Each structure stands twice: as structure tokens, then as C-alpha cells.
Amino acid sequence: MNVSAKQIEKQRYENNKLAKRLRREVGQAIADFNMIEDGDKVMVCLSGGKDSFGLLDILLYLKEKAPIDFDVVAVNLDQKQPGFPADVLPNYLKNLGVPFHIENEDTYSIVKRVIPEGKTTCSLCSRLRRGVLYRVAGELGATKIALGHHRDDILATLFLNMFFAAKLKTMPPKLVSDDGCNVVIRPLAYCREKDLEAWAGVREFPIIPCNLCGSQPNLQRQQVKQMLVEWEKRFPGRIETMFRSLANVVPSHLMDPRLFDFAGLKPSGRPDPDGDRAFDPEELADGSIIPLEFKALHG
Ligand code: SF4
């Protein structure tokens, strides 16, 4: 075997591993949150970015393998941004043989008319888009709306909420929409962004650039993402650990009296092996210790 044949073989092996990992993670998220049920019609929102292409691609694969029966319909909202290549998605979807719908709605002009020059357009634009997509879901008889947010979006949103809204919340993997009529799911919730990027390359998705609207990029989100990337470089594994903490919440050890009855807390009089050893430093699974403040150790 010459070198290039070896390289091709290695690449094929890596691609295979990547495909298996992404499909396993999506399948696991769907199962953990009961995202898709027998008979569902899942509307996949396709923006033309790498994440929504990946979402559609993986869901179509799982649809063939899953023990349950569900339908997929791809939906793109053509917001009439200048330069939007309107034929790219229909051609791709026709070739794929998947049912699809393109909704034409000139939200771009509305946003340009209403928002003064130089101000951020994203919040009105996404509000308008959301309204259109909810309506289309109803018209198509979709029972679930699937969005392409991934693990890194979820973590970045957690920090943005902490930094700018003083809230401990993020994008959940499954929720009922604000109009009360739709269930929104995020099947990529466990997938890493860099895997989706790599998958987009492997599958050669015809990516549509996301800067057609001419909006300024969301600087705060970019800065938070950069912060996470730097942490991960310095402390490998930190992102995964932080992400897992979202599914391991201890309300009695936070400070929200709506989630835990601190006011009514009384000694039970019985020892509890899993109880809190408030005066001991906490031992982690790997045997290391979370250091306490001197004050906590010595009163
Ligand atoms: S980046 Fe452009 S298309 Fe995307 S939400 Fe903002 S204004 Fe809308």
C-alpha cells in the first residue's frame, strides 16, 4: 500500500468514527429527552449553515434505522436577504429526495425599515423568523420543530445568561414554544461544534454564508465562545465537564428559594451517608480535592 492509499484509508476510518459518534450522540439525546415519538412529523429548520445541514443529514439516517416511525420535512425560510442563492437548498433537497418546503417571506425589508442603521438587527429578525416558522409548522402539520443548536451553543448561552442576564439558564434540548403550540427540539444537543464542522466537510454540504444580511456579528457570543476555547486549550476536558454539570443540578446547593425550601430546612436527626459534609473539602471522582476557603475550614 503506498502512502496516499494509506492516507485515504486512515481518512475513511476517521470519517467513519466521526459519523458513528455524531449519530450515537444524536440518538442518545433523542432518547434521553424523548424528543421524537412514533408518528411524529419533524420539521427540520434548514438555514443553509453547517449545523442545520448536519442535523437533517443525521436525522434522515436515524429515520431509516430507528425502531419508531417518524417523518421528516425540511423547511427553509428565504428571508430575501440580498445575494441569497435561492436555488441551492431546493436543488440539494430534491437530490436528497426529502420532502421540503421553502417559505418566502421578506423579513429582511421589515428589519431594514424598522431598525435604525448601525443598530443590531438580530433580535427583531429572529423574532420574525420564529413567528413564521411556528406558523409554517402548523400549516405542515409538524408535531416537532428541530433546530440545529449544538453542545457549544448551549454552553455559550449558559455563560451569556450568567454574564448579562444574571440567570442560570440555557437553551434546553426540548421545550414548548412561547406561543404554547409547538414542541421545539435540539437533537444536536450532545454534539461538538468541531465535529459538525468536520462532518460538513466530509459530506460536502453546499453551505450558504451567514453574513448576507450585513449584520454585525454578535460580539458577546463570539467572546464567550473564545473564552471556552481558551479554557479547553489550557484545561482539556473542561468543556465536557461543564456540559455534564447541566444534567447534574443540585438545587439545595444553589441559592434559589423557589427551587429549594431553605426556609423550612430542619435537622432530620438521622445520619445520611450521602448528606452534606459542610466542613470537609469536597473530594472529586479522580481523588482530587476542591479546596475550601480558609474561613470554611477554621470558622
Ligand atoms: S445574523 Fe442576520 S439573518 Fe441572522 S439573525 Fe441576525 S440579522 Fe437575522
Automatic annotation (TrEMBL):
Motif interval(s): PP-loop motif: 47-52
GO CC annotations, alphabetized: cytoplasm
InterPro entries in alphabetical order: Rossmann-like_a/b/a_fold, TilS/TtcA_N, tRNA_Cyd_32_2_STrfase, tRNA_thiolation_TtcA_Ctu1
Uppermost EC category: transferase
Essential cofactor(s): Mg(2+); [4Fe-4S] cluster
UniProt remark on cofactor binding: Binds 1 [4Fe-4S] cluster per subunit. The cluster is chelated by three Cys residues, the fourth Fe has a free coordination site that may bind a sulfur atom transferred from the persulfide of IscS.
Entry keyword set: 4Fe-4S, ATP-binding, Cytoplasm, Iron, Iron-sulfur, Magnesium, Metal-binding, Nucleotide-binding, RNA-binding, Transferase, tRNA processing, tRNA-binding
Domain tRNA(Ile)-lysidine/2-thiocytidine synthase N-terminal: 41-201
Functional pathway: tRNA modification
Gene Ontology biological process: tRNA thio-modification
Homology family: Belongs to the TtcA family.
Protein name: tRNA-cytidine(32) 2-sulfurtransferase
Gene from which this protein is expressed: ttcA
